[in-house]
Amino acid sequence: MPEAGVLPDDPHPLPPPTATFARDAERHLLDAPRHCPQCGAPIAGPGGLVVEYWAAEDRVFYCWCRSCDWTGTVIQVDRHIGHEASD
Amino acid sequence: MLTAEQNAELTRVGPGTPMGELLRRYWYPVAFTRQLEEFPVKRVRLLGENWAVYRTPDGSYGVVEEHCPHRRASLAYGVVEAEGLRCGYHGWLFGRDGTCLDQPAELDKTTFKDRVRARAGRAEELGGMVWVYVGPEPAPLLPRYDVYVMDGVRDFGHALLPCNWLQIMENAVDPHHVEWLHGRYFEFLGNRMGFEAPKSFQRRHVKVAFDEFDHGIIKRRLLEGHSEDDDDWAIGHPMVFPYCMRVGGAGIEQMQIRVPVDDTTTWFVLYTVHAPDGAPAPDQDVIPDYELPWRDEQGNHIVDYVEGQDIMAWVTQGPITDRTVEHLGKSDVGIAMLRKQFKQQLAAVAAGRDPIAVVRDPAANDRIDLPCEKNKFGAGADFALQWMNLGFTRYSPQLQDLLRLHTEAAEVRASA
User: Fold this and answer.
1) CB nearest to B329's CB, from A21, A24, A55
2) N or C: which end of chain A has fewer CB within 10 A?
3) Which among B9, B322, B328 is the nearest to A51, CB-wise?
4) CB atoms A53 and B2 under 8 Å
5) CA distance B31 to B175
6) Strands B289-291 and B129-133
7) DSSP per position, B47-67
8) B97/chain A closest Cα distance in angstroms
9) Looking at the structure, do residues B106 and B226 belong to the same domain, yes or no?
10) Which residue on chain A is closest to B328 by alpha carbon?
11) Could you tell me the CATH number of the domain that includes residue B202?
């Protein structure tokens, strides 16, 4: 697995840069959680599962950890939006 | 969306691959009983390997790796003997367990035959099909799912599809496609081609849910105008791990079977039993099996029937779906759950445990009932006729008999 924010040298795990949605595949490889939120074990590759799906503006990472069997979703947050007080 | 590494792990089924090791823990249908009765040996391909499956004169079955360990000729061209299969090239005879029993051209006292054996699996007949297990010993039991052992009129439609089995399995946990592929798209075709598409497939999905259980994942749908008391929500139906889906309604019971032939080929079998209430099941000397046409002479998909639409959706994804460039939504959470279930079972096998849906207790295997809607889409008895006329059964040689069976059964129920 590449270092955070760094694409792997070997481009083979990714579609060619000119392919449609190549940027989305690249972002998934870079941004998918690498460690279990519960136990910290690696969850990339054989150690777990990370499935990305999109909901509204969110990129949701459905994660499973092989070490502790934790299943849950991880959503990267850029801005925390609180509720609006009613009038 | 997955990484290429995770996609490969989930889709490669050959020997030595993690998924191949998991999938070899299960039994698979590889032929119709009729085929081995008509000619007692047949070449089959399963999980990326070729095998010779055969039927001995006493009605027992065996399966060995296709290539003879002598000079690698095909045992599918061998002679079926009472003890097993004899290679057609030089007469080496192999018992059901792969033991070499005879090497005619070698000296009688040689121990050569004790030092060579064919790879062998196990083979049995159940419900009109021949099943094989090619995994490690001790072999589990061949699961006696309800459809395979229930009374009724059997009907087998099938097709060999040029795509990986997993993208077909993902369809089994994808309820929304029904109202679009079999609803809106079917209606669009009907308007263009001059037929009426079935309304029962067009209901909008209000809510979907997925529950894991011992044999896979149960899928539920709440349709517009229905309540949670309706069968589609209250009962649902399951994806049966790792290669089937149980569906049905209105007296039609079915197991959709997706045999992983190799990485880019799946044998799709619609194992169907017609058992409507009110009609005693007639005797069935021969179970018809028929290939489903899914491409026309110009190479275009045939999409004016339900299963033809599914086949189009699966095959046009490509030989192996490139999941690095898919874009899933929240409506696809069942697919994420399915992939997780496969990963969990990969881990179980790697740890030396049985994966789910492996059956070893004979007491639990007389008949394994699976949940399945009776009143499908709220369509009542009409669902059976809609499904047969606008589904794959239209190609069955016994279509008219089946239509009559369901119609007469409905009349009996109405008069009761």
Assistant:
1) A55
2) C
3) B328
4) no
5) 30
6) unpaired
7) TTEEEEEEE-TTS-EEEEESB
8) 34
9) no
10) A53
11) 3.90.380
Same domain, B114 and B210: no
Q: Please check whether residue A20 touches B, CB under 8 A.
A: yes
Instruction: Choose among A20, A53, A69: nearest Cβ to B329.
Output: A53
Q: How many whole angstroms separate alpha carbon A36 and alpha carbon A42?
A: 6
User: Between chain A and chain B, how many beta carbons pairs sit less than 8 Å apart?
Assistant: 78
ipTM of the complex: 0.83
Q: How far is CA A17 from the centre of its chain?
A: 20
Of A15, A45, A49, the CB nearest to B324: A15
Type of residue found at B296: D
CB of A59 within 8 Å of a chain B CB? The answer is: no
3-state secondary structure of B414: helix
Asked if B120 and B199 sit in the same domain, the reply is no
Are B271 and B335 part of one and the same domain?
yes
Q: What tokens were used for B162?
A: 């040029």
Evaluate the CA torsion angle B46, B51, B57, B60 in order and state its sign.
negative
How far apart are alpha carbons B153 and B214 in whole angstroms?
A: 28
Q: How far apart are the first and last CA of chain B?
A: 54
Question: Of B133, B163, B181, which residue constitutes the final position of a domain?
Answer: B133
- Is the CB of A53 less than 8 angstroms away from the CB of B328? yes
What is the DSSP secondary structure assignment for residue B235, as one 8-state letter? T
Tokens of A16: 């060619």
d(CA B164, CA B166): 6
B322 vs A49: CB contact, 8 Å cut-off?
A: no
pLDDT by residue, tens only, chain A of 87 residues: 445 566 665 555 777 778 888 899 989 988 999 999 999 999 988 899 999 999 988 999 999 999 999 999 999 887 777 777 765
What does the alpha-carbon distance between residue B266 and residue B159 come to, in Å, rounded to a whole number?
Answer: 8
- pTM metric for this prediction: 0.94
Residue boundaries of the structural domains of chain A: 37-77
